[in-house]
Amino acid sequence: MMFYRWEGDELVLECHLQPGARQEGFAGVHGERLKIRIAAPPVDGKANDRLLAFLAGAFDVPRTQVRLLRGERSRQKRVAVTAPATLPVELGISRQEYCVAPSRSLD
Question: How far apart are CA 65 and CA 52, in angstroms?
């Protein structure tokens, strides 16, 4: 399983959050999740807010296009990014191509 999947124009990320880090950024893969370091502490939703803002910047979208789907009180998060304008090269994410087979005539 990869740490991401496409659902239409939404990129869904399975993340492992490391709050309270000295430096923010992507830190590789942790199990089957993308590890992300965030400087904000895990208090009063600060780490979640910073995570969403960080991802908005990384994928070049407004903060309103990034949503926390699961994991509000956990390090294990599921996040959706709607119509990302940029895909960070270091993550190796590719856009899913949809192919429709040409219809065959039964004549």
Answer: 9
pTM of the predicted structure, to 2 decimals: 0.87
Angle at 14 between CA 10 and CA 15, to 5 degrees: 120
Cβ neighbours of residue 65 closer than 8 Å, sequence gap 6 or more: 56, 81, 82, 83
CB–CB of 37/23 below 8 Å? yes
pLDDT in tens, 21-37: 999 999 999 999 999 99
